[in-house]
Amino acid sequence: MYNISRLHPRAESLRSREMLSQSLERGLLVPQGLIAYGRGEAFDYLFGERTIPAARNAIRAAAAQMILADRPVISVNGNVASVAAKGVATLSKITGADVEINLFYRSQERIRKISGVLRDAGIRNVLGVDPAYQKRIPELCSERRRVDSRGIMKADVVVIPLEDGDRTESLRKMGKLVIAVDLNPLSRTSQSASISIVDDIVRVIPHMIDQIRYLNRLTDEEIHHIASSFDNSANLGSVLSYLAHRISRLSTKRQEKS
Ligand code: PTJ
């Protein structure tokens, strides 16, 4: 592992790159996961590598929905297991959510390695591993269609970080509330989720944990109000406005300098 100074202005991002490179070597991650990370990182750079106010709103609504859910499930792929396994374990513990492995580039070898990492992080019962419980999502042709009959198949709320669009649409057609985490506000996933958190998964999980702890002190009525008053389409509009203003501000600054 390369030693990354905490003082480096982009330390967080370099640390994620390092963890992903190591995961690739260990066979948890596919090379395509690095490409996906690079795309997310480019968006993050434009947002200023911080959790923007619209992302905080989405995180609060997502936290409320997770508290209200009867059967919440967190879907984990190679990228998520590489950079956020411990956070997912804590989130699962405080919400009672199940954790299910669901891969686009599916192989038994990767499932075995990822479930090992999740178990090491403290998740005792990792779903999506035992073929005896495997069910298929109708109409979905990618490997993501294979879900656990005890997990995503039965879930009312599904958290899907770093996803590819098709499954989001299918899950919504099945009547599930889908919480996406995707740095690209224009992706099909962000556009079709019930709640789209446009932020880096590494920052989202701790914010979500804090929010859940805070919301747990509120009344049911207050939590319901937070969940039901969230408007995903308007919030995505705020994300794009933030981006447009930031780029315009940066462009004005440059013009003033020259
Ligand atoms: O492990 P597997 O086999 O399930 O494969 C996982 C990947 C991510 C390779 C697969 O799902 C894939 O190809 O995804 P896409 O279609 O590239 O979409 C991934 C999305 O995640 C992109 O829109 C990225 O902007 C976004 N993204 C990447 N890194 C982060 C991110 N969003 C939040 N936090 C990140 N760190």
Description of the structure:
- By secondary structure, the protein is α/β, with parallel strands linked by helices.
- It has a single domain, classed as 3-Layer(aba) Sandwich (Rossmann fold).
- It is 56% helix and 12% strand.
- The protein contains 10 helices and 8 strands.
- The strands form 2 sheets. A 6-stranded parallel beta sheet has the order 3-2-1-6-7-8, with helices on both faces. A two-stranded antiparallel ribbon has the order 4-5.
- Helix 3 packs across helix 9.
- The chain is globular, with a radius of gyration of 18 Å.
- Ligand PTJ binds at residues 30, 32-33, 36-37, 39-40, 43, 77-79, 103-105, 162-164, 181-184, 187, 200-201.
Q: What does this entry show, briefly?
A:
The protein has 258 residues and is an alpha/beta fold. The chain has helices at residues 11-26, 31-47, 53-68, 78-95, 108-120, 165-173, 188-192, 201-215, 220-228, 232-257; strands at residues 72-76, 98-101, 126-127, 134-136, 146-148, 157-161, 177-181, 195-197. Bound molecules: ligand PTJ.
Low-confidence stretches: none
CATH fold call: Rossmann fold
Strand order of the largest sheet: 3-2-1-6-7-8
Alpha carbon gap, first and last residue: 41 Å
Topology readout:
Blueprint: H1 11-26, H2 31-47, H3 53-68, E1 72-76, H4 78-95, E2 98-101, H5 108-120, E3 126-127, E4 134-136, E5 146-148, E6 157-161, H6 165-173, E7 177-181, H7 188-192, E8 195-197, H8 201-215, H9 220-228, H10 232-257
Helix pairs in contact: 1-2, 1-4, 3-8, 3-9, 3-10, 4-5, 4-8
The structure holds ligand PTJ.
Residues 30, 32-33, 36-37, 39-40, 43, 77-79, 103-105, 162-164, 181-184, 187, 200-201 line the site of ligand PTJ.
